[in-house]
Amino acid sequence: MRLKIRHLEVFNALFEAGSVSRAALRLNLSQPAVSVALGKLEEEFGMKLFHRDRGFFAPTREAVLLREEVRHGLAALTRIDQRADEIRAGSAGAISVATNGAMSVNMLPRVIAEFQKENPGIRTNLHVRSSRRVASMVASRQVDIGLIDAPMPVAGLEGEQMRMECVCVMTKDDPLTSHEVITPQLLSGRRVIGVTGDHSVDRQFEDQMVRADAVYERSCTSYFYALARNMVAAGGDVSIIDPVNGKADLKDGVVWRKFHPPIYHDMVVITHRGQPLGIAAKLFLDKLHEGLKPFAVKDDRAEQ
């Protein structure tokens, strides 16, 4: 069956108007065009839909039975058209974002909330996985945007690297709060919460402590920066974590101080190299950049 939207529109207009002339006026068509469309529709359905009587069209019993389906069908087509307009405008759709633990607690929830206030018609799905798994999901087009630790572990990705300067976090009653800048010497003899023990931040910290001939005790590891902060709040140890989680105003009794020499958290925002982002994903990426920008520092390696 080769049913056309115009056929359904003619059926609906005739059903409501009761004559070819009024239906033609309503649809901005000629009367012959309406008659031809009705004839084709009746031929497609294999049944008579209207009784003709001196210019007036009365629906048959079969037409009455079809009427509700036709009305719903036309309404659905209108909704499809409206939805397509919304998607083109970036005000509707769905996006998927995957991140490792670093940005999952104190960055992306806020970014997503702000984004959805501005774009209530766009559904956002957030996945938290390891950096390698996030990269694999972006490469296989399971998600639109990924946030991972540098470097990128797989090929076929576009990446925008961002460098953040880590901070030292401690409880607000820790004696270290009297210092504006925390140095390796000040952490000599202290218990320090690590990330994984082999994370880039852990290795940088270890190197700084060795250079300063400062001895510390790694009390435990947390895997997530946000968990390291929670452990600081609960136990009184200190930790070196990224500024997003370290500087967050959580009213948890934890404060931060600059650490010098600097230790960096290097992250990469990744997308698929061969598939351009949709409108909704581009809007989200802009909002993500807006959220990350205050924490980014100049990466001197890019100029070397």
Question: Topology, pairings included?
Answer:
Elements: H1 5-17, H2 20-27, H3 31-45, E1 50-53, E2 56-59, H4 61-88, E3 93-99, H5 108-118, E4 122-128, H6 131-139, E5 145-149, E6 157-165, E7 167-171, E8 181-182, E9 191-194, H7 200-211, E10 217-221, H8 225-235, E11 238-241, H9 243-246, E12 254-259, E13 264-272, H10 279-292, E14 296-297
Parallel strand pairs: 3-4, 3-5, 8-12, 9-10, 9-11
Antiparallel strand pairs: 1-2, 5-13, 6-13, 6-14, 7-11, 7-12
Helix pairs in contact: 1-2, 1-3, 1-4, 2-3, 5-10
Question: Can you describe this structure?
Answer:
The chain is an alpha/beta fold and 304 residues long. It folds into 3 domains: 84 residues, Winged helix-like DNA-binding domain superfamily/Winged helix DNA-binding domain (Arc Repressor Mutant, subunit A, Orthogonal Bundle); 109 residues, 3-Layer(aba) Sandwich (D-Maltodextrin-Binding Protein, domain 2); 96 residues, D-Maltodextrin-Binding Protein, domain 2 (3-Layer(aba) Sandwich). The chain has 10 helices and 14 strands. The strands form 3 sheets. The protein has a 6-stranded mixed beta sheet, with helices on both faces. α7 links the parallel β9 and β10. The termini are far apart.
Binned strand content: 15-25%
User: H/E element string?
Assistant: HHHEEHEHEHEEEEEHEHEHEEHE
Largest pleated sheet: 6 strands, mixed
How helix-rich are the residues, as a percent range? 40-55%
* CATH architecture title of the largest domain: 3-Layer(aba) Sandwich
Low-confidence stretches: none
Number of domains: 3
* Overall mean confidence score, pLDDT: 91
- Tally of helical runs: 10
Structural class estimated from helices and strands = alpha/beta
Shape, principal axes of CA atoms: rod-shaped
- Strand neighbour order, sheet with most strands: 4-3-5-13-6-14
Distance between the termini: 67 Å
CATH H-tier superfamily of the largest domain: Periplasmic binding protein-like II
Radius of gyration: 32 Å
**The CATH C-level class name of the largest domain:** Alpha Beta
Protein name: LysR family transcriptional regulator
Family: Belongs to the LysR transcriptional regulatory family.
Keywords: DNA-binding, Transcription, Transcription regulation
Organism: Roseovarius nubinhibens
